[in-house]
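YM 10:42: Lipid droplet assembly factor 1 sequence, as discussed on the call
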Amino acid sequence: MAKEEPQSISRDLQELQKKLSLLIDSFQNNSKVVAFMKSPVGQYLDSHPFLAFTLLVFIVMSAVPVGFFLLIVVLTTLAALLGVIILEGLVISVGGLSLLCILCGLGFVSLAMSGMMIASYVVVSSLISCWFSPRQLTQQNTSCDFLPAMKSADFEGLYQE
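YM 10:58: structure's back
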């Protein structure tokens, strides 16, 4: 029973990887995505993946505050149609300044979140590749060394007085 579990996990991971690669291929073959990636902005974001991921997190996080601001603008415009014109300018200016502050804060939060997400992705992918590597399943080796073994000759030049 215990020997079948790593094989089923490995098979499930391979099936998940196959589905994910098909999804990514269908996304990358979309004509609009291809046109965007050929543009200068797409090429710049392709060469700077951390910036692209931060921008994606910022856009996702800022959708709610921008939606609330647009709702306030629509409601104050409707109120202006009823005759409260002075209040409209005050509400839109205060709402705009608060939206600016919220978006600046979300920029810093999205930068921190994308950094943590990328770091956790690197750690989890390293652990998964260590735990479920094909060489480990064939050798039944439970230890996984992330760093290569260093010889004592590597340290000879460090501590000379």
